[in-house]
């Protein structure tokens, strides 16, 4: 079933359909396994994502999940999403013609070799949660303190940022009152979005 979806992805009408097909042909010469993830073809080795191929309105390209480790002799790689992704790099193309098959294959093979070496960027350690003074005062209530401390660090951070982002003292107080029941229930500020 997944292969049908991949075929559909590559055969759909797209301004860069020929270029996308060419990238696929190059990648399929390697040992990577082709899958459809997040609505686009992703190529993996031993269930670890190595690269993906995607077409957009003005360009198409290859996304290297751990591209930060590629030597990039042609200087074609760019950071995928500036602050959000530290490891991912992309190689964009804006024309169907002129894809250097040898160069693309070289980058893909280097990405495979890096995956086999186990190269990956470790996540940055999050700094400790800085609890706003108003919340510190409220946490003198033992029930609230115990409930707050049992929350994940991410949920604690959400609550602290929520209070700190209020400009007026009055708003900070109303936000404190709003979050008490949520903390006591063990809920995060944004759980209803998850």
From TrEMBL:
Protein name, per record: YdeI/OmpD-associated family protein
Organism: Lentiprolixibacter aurantiacus
Coiled-coil positions: none
YdhG-like domain sequence ranges: 17-112
């Amino acid at each position: 079933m997944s292969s049908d979806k991949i075929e559909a992805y590559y055969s759909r009408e797209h301004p860069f359909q020929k270029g996308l097909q060419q990238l696929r042909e190059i990648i399929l010469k390697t040992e990577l396994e082709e899958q459809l993830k997040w609505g686009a073809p992703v190529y993996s080795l031993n269930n670890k994502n190595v690269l993906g191929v995607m077409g957009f309105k003005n360009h198409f390209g290859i996304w290297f999940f751990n591209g930060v480790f590629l030597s990039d002799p042609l200087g074609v790689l760019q950071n995928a999403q500036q602050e959000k992704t530290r490891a991912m790099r992309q190689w964009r193309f804006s024309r169907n013609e002129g894809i250097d098959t040898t160069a693309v294959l070289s980058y893909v093979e280097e990405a495979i070799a890096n995956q086999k070496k186990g190269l990956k960027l470790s996540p940055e350690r999050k700094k400790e949660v800085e609890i706003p003074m108003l919340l510190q005062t409220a946490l003198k209530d033992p029930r609230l303190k115990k409930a707050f401390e049992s929350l994940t660090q991410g949920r604690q951070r959400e609550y602290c940022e929520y209070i700190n982002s209020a400009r007026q003292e009055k708003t900070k107080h109303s936000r404190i009152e709003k979050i008490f029941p949520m903390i006591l229930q063990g809920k995060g500020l944004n759980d209803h979005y998850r």
